[in-house]
Design goal:
This protein is 34% helix and 20% strand. It has helices spanning 27-38, 55-58, 73-83, 90-109, 141-153, 217-224, 255-258, 278-290, 300-304, 309-312, 314-322, 377-398, 419-436, 443-460, 467-485; strands at 8-9, 15-23, 44-47, 63-64, 116-117, 120-121, 123-124, 134-135, 158-161, 164-171, 174-181, 186-196, 229-230, 235-242, 262-265, 295-298, 330-340, 343-345, 357-359, 364-365, 408-409, 508-512, 516-520. Helix 1 (27-38) crosses helix 12, helix 13 (419-436) runs parallel beside helix 15 and helix 14 (443-460) runs antiparallel to helix 15 (467-485). It is globular.
C-alpha cells in the first residue's frame, strides 16, 4: 500500500496555517469546535457538504441518557454492555453513561428543544434499553441538536465548505498537516493538531442510510498515515429502512417501534420481538426475505394508541405520504447498512497512536459499542467524547508548534480514469460488499469479495486520479480480512459457517500496517 495516493508538492501548494483543523461538521466535529472556542482556540473546519448535510443531521430517533426519575447511569451501563456482546471497553462505557448524562443536561441548558409534556421531558424507549431514556425532538433530534451547536459557533469559526480530505501528512508518527481539495485545486493546511470527525463507512455498501453517500475514505487516509484501526468487521444494519425499488434506503427510526409499531410479513404475521437488539431484528427480516416473504412496518398500533404520526414523526409522515403509504400505514422495509462500529482506534479523549491526530464520533472506535451499538448511544458519543477531545487538543497544543515539513508525492502515472468508469467501479465495490460482506458472511463469500476487491485495486493502480476509490478498496480489504479473522458470530458480525459466539474470540480485531490483522484483548 502506497503512503500517498495523489500527487503534490508542499512547497508549491497554497498554504494556510491554523492552531487546529477539524475535518467534518457533524455533531462530533461541532462539539469539539464549540468547546475549543470556550477554551480560547479558534478552529478551522473543513467539510465536503454544508454543515446541515451530515449523518448527525439525519439522526431521527434521539439521544440516550439516564435522566428519567426511575433510571440511573448504572442501568444504562448494563444495557450498553449487554448489547456489546462482551467487546465493550468498560471504562469508556462508564465515561459515556456518566459524563454523557451531564452533557445532555448541558444541551438542555443550551436551549436544545427536547419534546416535553406539561414541562416534563418526554422519553421514549428503543431496542435493548431497559428504561425509557431516549430524549427526542419529534423525529428530527440530530438536526435540532446539531443546528443548536452550529448556531453557537458559526460566527466564530473559520469554515471551508466544498473541500474534502485528500492526504494526511506526518513525519516520524507525528501529524504535520493535511491536503484538501475541491476537485479543482488543492490547499495545504498546516496546524498543530488535527481532529478527524468525518463519520463512518456504511456507504461502502450498496444499500445504506448515509447522508448523500458520505463515505469512509478518510479512515483509509488515516490508516495510510499510520493510524491503527479496530473492529472493522462490525457494521450495524438498521432493521427498518424504506424498501421501494429504485429509491434510497430512507431511515425509519427505531422510535417508531419503541412507540408500538410492529414488524409483519405480507400475511400480517409478526415474526420477531421488535425491541430486540438491532442485529437480531435485522437478521429476522433478512430471513423473511430469504423465505420469499415481504416485510412491512405497521404503524397502525400507534394510531390506535392515539399517537399522531404527523405530529410525533413529521419527517417520516411526509416521507410515507410521498410514497402513498399514509392510508394503509404499512411501509415496506428491509435492513440497510447504517452505522460502522469499527474505525480509527482512539481513546475516550480522542487520542490516536499518531501524535497530534485525534479522532471522534463514528470515524473512531473507542470500544463503547462493543460488537453491537445500543440504540441512540451514537449522538451521546458525539457530545460526550467531542467535549473530552477538545480538552486533549488544548493540552496537546500547549506544547506543540506548527511543523514545516517538506513532502513531495509523485505517482508517475499519466492515465486518468473517466468519471463514468469511476462511477461504475464505485457501484461494483458497493455491490461486492453488500452481496458478500453484509448481514450474513461465510469463508466462501468473504474470500470471493477479497479476490474481487484485489482485482479492482490492481486495475485502479494504473490511473492517477483514483485516490478516493483506492482508499475505499483498502478499507473494504480491511473489513473483509477482519471478518475472515473472526471465526465466530458476535453482535453485528454473523458467520453462517460459525454461527456461535466463542470465548476465544472475545478480543478486538486490530489492523496494523500493511493490513496485518491481530486479535487482541484491550
Amino acid at each position: 500500500m502506497d503512503r500517498y495516493l495523489s500527487e503534490f508538492d508542499t512547497k508549491t501548494l497554497p498554504e494556510i496555517k491554523t492552531d487546529t483543523v477539524i475535518v467534518g461538521a457533524g455533531l462530533a466535529g461541532l462539539t469539539v469546535a464549540y468547546q475549543l472556542l470556550r477554551l480560547g482556540i479558534k478552529p478551522l473546519i473543513i467539510t465536503k457538504k454544508p454543515p446541515d448535510i451530515s449523518n448527525s443531521f439525519l439522526a431521527q430517533g434521539g439521544i440516550a441518557a439516564a435522566i428519567g426519575k426511575d433510571d440511573d447511569p448504572e442501568y444504562h451501563y448494563i444495557d450498553t454492555i449487554k448489547a456489546g456482546k462482551g467487546l465493550c471497553i468498560e471504562k469508556n462505557v462508564r465515561v459515556l453513561v456518566e459524563e454523557g448524562l451531564e452533557r445532555v443536561i448541558d444541551l438542555i441548558n443550551l436551549g436544545v428543544p427536547f419534546d416535553r409534556y406539561n414541562g416534563e421531558i418526554l422519553l421514549t424507549r428503543e431496542g435493548a434499553h431497559s428504561h425509557r431514556r431516549v430524549l427526542h425532538i419529534k423525529d428530527k433530534t440530530g438536526a435540532q441538536i446539531s443546528s443548536t451547536i452550529y448556531n453557537l459557533v458559526k460566527d466564530q469559526i473559520n469554515l471551508y465548505t466544498g473541500y474534502y480530505l485528500e492526504e494526511i501528512l506526518t513525519a516520524d508518527d507525528i501529524y504535520t498537516g493535511i491536503i484538501i481539495s475541491n476537485g479543482k485545486e488543492k490547499k495545504l493546511i498546516r496546524s498543530k493538531s488535527l481532529v478527524l470527525a468525518t463519520g463512518g463507512y456504511s456507504p461502502i455498501y450498496k444499500r445504506n442510510t448515509s447522508a448523500y453517500n458520505i463515505s469512509g475514505d478518510s479512515i483509509s487516509a488515516a490508516y495510510r498515515a499510520g493510524c491503527i484501526l479496530r473492529d472493522l468487521e462490525f457494521i450495524q444494519f438498521h432493521p427498518t429502512a424504506l424498501y421501494v425499488e429504485g429509491y434510497p434506503a430512507y431511515l425509519l427510526t427505531e422510535a417508531l417501534r419503541g412507540e408500538g409499531a410492529l414488524l409483519i410479513n405480507e400475511k400480517g404475521e409478526r415474526f420477531v420481538n421488535e425491541m430486540k437488539p438491532r442485529d437480531e431484528v435485522s437478521r429476522a427480516i433478512f430471513n423473511q426475505y430469504k423465505q420469499g416473504h415481504k416485510v412491512f412496518l405497521d404503524l397502525n398500533p400507534l394510531k390506535e394508541k392515539g399517537i399522531s404520526i404527523a405530529k410525533r414523526f413529521p419527517t417520516i409522515y411526509a416521507l410515507i405520504t410521498e410514497f402513498g403509504f399514509q392510508d394503509s400505514l404499512k411501509i415496506p422495509v428491509s435492513p440497510a447498512a447504517h452505522y460502522s462500529i469499527g474505525g480509527i482506534k482512539a481513546t475516550a479523549n480522542g487520542k490516536t497512536n499518531i501524535q497530534g491526530f485525534f479522532a471522534v464520533g463514528e470515524v473512531s472506535c473507542t470500544g463503547i459499542h462493543g460488537a453491537n451499538r445500543l440504540a441512540s448511544n451514537s449522538l451521546l458519543e458525539c457530545v460526550t467524547f467531542g467535549y473530552k477531545t477538545a480538552y486533549s487538543v488544548y493540552t496537546y497544543n500547549l506544547y506543540s508548534e506548527i511543523k514545516n515539513v517538506h513532502i513531495k508525492s509523485s505517482l508517475g502515472l499519466d492515465r486518468e480514469m473517466s468519471h463514468k468508469q469511476k462511477l461504475e467501479i464505485l457501484a461494483k465495490i458497493k455491490e461486492i460488499m453488500w452481496e458478500n460482506v453484509g448481514l450474513e458472511r461465510s469463508e466462501d463469500t468473504l474470500k470471493t469479495a477479497l479476490e474481487e476487491i484485489k482485482e479492482i485495486q490492481e486495475q485502479l493502480k494504473k490511473f492517477s486520479n483514483v485516490r478516493y476509490l483506492l482508499d475505499l478498496t483498502y478499507l473494504s480489504e480491511g473489513i473483509i480480512l477482519s471478518a475472515l479473522s473472526r471465526k465466530e458470530s458476535r453482535g453485528t458480525h454473523y458467520r453462517i459457517d460459525f454461527p456461535e459466539e466463542k470465548e476465544e474470540y472475545r478480543k478486538h480485531t486490530t489492523t496494523y500496517n500493511n493490513l496485518k490483522i491481530k486479535l487482541e484483548v484491550d
